[in-house]
Amino acid sequence: MDSNVTKIIIVGGGSAGWMAANSILSQLNKNIKVTLVESETIGTIGVGEGSTPYLKEYFKALNIPESEWMPACNATYKVGIDFVNWSTVKGYESYFHPFFSQFDLKPAKLFFDNTNKRRMQHSINAHPNHYFVAAHLAALNYSPIVKEKIPFDVDYGYHFDSVKLGLFLKRKAKERNINHIVANIEKVSTKDDGDISSISTQCGKKLTGDLFIDCSGFAGLLVNKAQNRCFTSYADSLINDSAVAIQTPLDNNEFASPLTISKALECGWSWKIPLANRWGNGYVYSSQFTTAEDAEIELRKELGLTDKTIKAKHLKMRVGRLDEHWRGNCLAVGLSQGFIEPLEATALMLIQLTIDRFIQVNNQHTIPSKGTIDTFNTEINTTFDGIRDYILAHYKLNSRTDTAYWRHCRDHVNETKSLAKILDAWDSELNFDDTLAKNKSQLVYLKPSWYCILAGMGRFPKATKADCESNQKSANEYCKAIVESYFIKNHEQLNTLYNR
After folding, report:
1. How many angstroms separate the CA atoms of 129 and 156, rounded?
2. What number of CA atoms fall less than 13 Å from residue 486's CA on the CB side?
3. Residue 78: active-site member
4. Residues of the chain predicted below pLDDT 50
5. Catalytic residue among 7, 56, 78, 316
């Protein structure tokens, strides 16, 4: 990409395409024309309905308030994820992975202290649910929005209707005068050096551009079919390759807690996501261990769903990433660049990170060098690999023995070297914080998240040392007091948001 870039072509709509379009139109410091070509027959997947706190920054950068976009997308607040039945360790059958804030500094210190004593075989409470404010927000059904101004941010994410999110972002991009074309792409033409020169639609329109962004999903019309870029599969460590999704209505006057529920089933895990108007439900599983038909039956049984008029949507997933997300004049964003199963709801975060870093590079460099692009690709790959390691940890730490699937995930899938270092340090008498610090460049998730998953799954030796200290009680009381003093009940906050 050079200083002569005046035309950018985005191939594909959905969350990836419209997120990229809005960011470029609002933040890229160039006088450019942006065209988005959206298929008239290929729909969006439309089941990724959760986010990390990073999504707050996206709307902040676009100057779009929650009171505008959340009602339009039936969105609700999210303070973390509840992991149910991943462990069989007594007292650790479920745990909550919270989003964090400065409110947590005091109780988190007690948690880290207790956890390290428990690692050294002390008989002491080290379950993360007692030590973080977000876990108490979820349990008490409070919103992450504070009653009055405080001198720091409270991290939270969202649940939303992903189809409506795409439509909302489409409308905002049109307000910014994007050139929107609805047509199927028939041909992609390349130059001798492999760069994209043009795309042609089935209706006979030829579109040339200086830069092309591939948001065409798993198909990867530009990066896969035209450029045949190398793909690094994660299938040797993350074996889930399929999903089935079902939407169910909310009961009358039902206000769901601000959390995602991730529950381990026979051959994978189910999600349960509360929106303002319905539940989003699904089952992520491995086709090596069950069929699509049996997975749907199991999900319907889990939901107690006897109404067969409520249809299910089946999906296949290609898990892994490109080696080069940006090559020459073509950038891959979204499913075309890679995918990691939605266990920690990182899909939109990866889209956002990719486009944000791309904009930063181009605003800093008139002509980004090959070295700059290589650094960009390395950073995105490190993020993908770091997320993979944290997702993989859920499976390696599971203690279920009831099905071949769970035994296989724990004992036979490939354990990456980076994850092995983390687990080995935890299981030994090494200083765990030192290990996290030494491997910081490879990690995406920070210290609290690693402590939460390892302690939450009950990854501890048998307790042999008596300990009468009880940090857990004081942390529990502190967190409850913070919730009641600073936060608003979830349904009260949603009513306020949706009625203004």
Report:
1. 17
2. 22
3. yes
4. 1-2, 500
5. 78
